[in-house]
Structure formats: C-alpha cells, structure tokens
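[Meeting: bench + compute handoff]

Bench side (C.D.) handed over the final construct sequence. Compute side (W.E.) agreed to return the predicted structure before the next meeting so the bench team could plan truncations. Sequence as handed over:
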Amino acid sequence: MSLAEQSRTKALMFNGRSGPKSKRLVRVFEKSFSQRFDDVVGEEPLEIHISQGGCVSLFSVTMRTPGNDFELVAGLLYAEGFITDREDIAELRYSCNGPDGQDYNVIVAHLRTVRREVESLERTMIASSACGVCGKSSLDDRFTKREGVVAEYSIDASYLLSLVDAMRSEQRYFDATGGVHAAGMFDLEGRRLTVKEDVGRHNAVDKAVGYLLLNGELSKVSVMVVSGRAGFEILQKALVARVGVVASVSAPTSLAIDLATEKGITLVGFLREKSFNIYSHPTRISSQRSLVS
C-alpha cells in the first residue's frame, strides 16, 4: 500500500474524531439567556517521533486539529528539511500504545533517509497552534538549511482574484465552527489541487504540502492561498515547496515581506473580492492595470 493510500485509509478510520466538537454554551442576546449546543473546532496535541535505523527520537509535540495527520507530519518534515521526497518516508503510522490498540495523538515516521540531524532541530516545548517557529530550541533554527528555487511564471490578476472563492467553497470546518484556517494550493491552469484546514495557520499549510508530496503532485503548485496572516513561517514553507505566489486574505508581516523580496516570491495580501496588495515581485502578476479604477 502506498503512502498516499495509507493516509486515505487512516483518515477514514480517524474520521470520527476529526470533525467539529459539540459543546454546551449559554447564548446571551440582549437580556435573554438560553442554553444550546454549538460546534467548535477540535484541538489536540500530536506527538511526532522519527524512526531511522532502529533509533526512535521524539521530534515535536504540536497542537493541531485532528485529521490529515499523516499529511501534517509529511509536510512538517519536508518544510524543515528532514525529507526531500516522499521516497524518504518508509511508513507513517499511529502508535500502537493506545487503549484500543491505536494512539491517534502519537505518530511515528519511519524514514529511509534522514536529511538532517534530529538533534539539530529538536523542539524543547510544545508548538502551539498559533506558532510554527516558537517550539524550536534556538532562534537560529528559524531558517532551514535547504532553500527552494522559485520558478518564473506569470498569472493573471483576475485568476488570482478568483482563488478566494475557490478555497472558501472547500472550507467545511470553517462553515461549521468559524474557528479554523485554510491553505489552498492551485496550479497555473486554475485547478484546485487541495484545500486543507486546521486551527493553526502553519498546520494547514503543512497538511496541504504533505498531501501533495505524498501524492506526487507538489511540483504542480504555482499559487498558495492562506486564510490568515502571511507570517514568516508561511513564506518559509512556500519557499521550500518552490511556490512562486503566496496570497493571503489578511495582512503580511514585515519579515515575510523581506523574505519574499529576497527569495523571489510574489507576496499578495488583503486578497478580497475585487482588490489586493502586492508586496514583492509584482511583475509576476499580469493585467495589473485592470485593477485600477
């Protein structure tokens, strides 16, 4: 069974815990109080271990929305340089130490080849769902040693404007809870390659990248759209995945703009129905005059 097939099979097994959670609340409207249930986004810790040559090392504990866990692990290992290809992964599996024989909050990644020393990026604290960098043991490790080569191509402004709706139509967890981020991957022909959701912005990107990596389609990505702000860690992941255009419906950060400018990524912010801002390498977006009223 291929890694992609393993991932789909496990996703079906895990589906019962990957959706929104129903919680009791008290609704206050004007001066009226009422009890009801509401769907909220799931958040649980995921413990990630790396196994290679018979040695198992704890890599990270990260907070995430359950579901697409294999994709999350594959995307995270790829972004941080531990793997460079899906063939580096021999197997991804949940721990067998759970009460029902499976612990769905612990994953062991069996790697054929480890491209970096695990100790060089050992995370000494839990990485929260809001931060993809804060769990690393040293601020010097915020830059990966492997950098992607961003291809040169051009996309039309009208095409870029259409991508928010294309991503939004796939955000079923957001529809249910209003509490998750999304990352959408698109090719030059406008095809939606995948959309993944998670309580963490960086997790959503890792899930999307990991899905495409496991299915051999990562090289097709030309544009990445994210629902939250475009921070440094989002641009770093795009750089490793060789994505030339990163578009956010929210604001970018100064460090993200600096990284995009230096590395040749076109960074777009405040991508809305009729407008957007281009913060770096604007020549990759064509028909810009059509946006000026």
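W.E. noted at the follow-up: The chain has two domains: 3-19+42-140, 155-291. C.D. will use this when planning the next construct.
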